[in-house]
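Forgive a beginner's question, but would it be possible to get a protein, spelled out as residues, together with the matching structure tokens, please?
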Amino acid sequence: MSTFDEKNSAAEPEEDRFVQRALAKVDRTVRIDWIKQIVVMVIVFPSVYYLVGHAPDHPVPFTVIMVLGLMLVAVTIKLVGLINRNTRVILRAIAEMNRK
């Protein structure tokens, strides 16, 4: 029985380091993704505005395609944000369990 406790106590610092590194990576990824989102929006919105303003002879299909594209970008950004947020919550819960 004591052998299991010794193995468990030896694994805890390694597991704690893993969880702390994972949390740091997730936090860094969230910041980088936030910056990427801002840069993409600064580039995309003026581009779409320019393209819609200078649309070809059939502006309605072109505008519909642009709106659908923007909606896909928005949904993708939202999903990535939710995945990152849930990952952080799970890792923090694991870290809290390890501290107790």
Remarks:
- Residues 2-53 form the longest helix (52 residues).
- Helices lie at 2-53, 59-99.
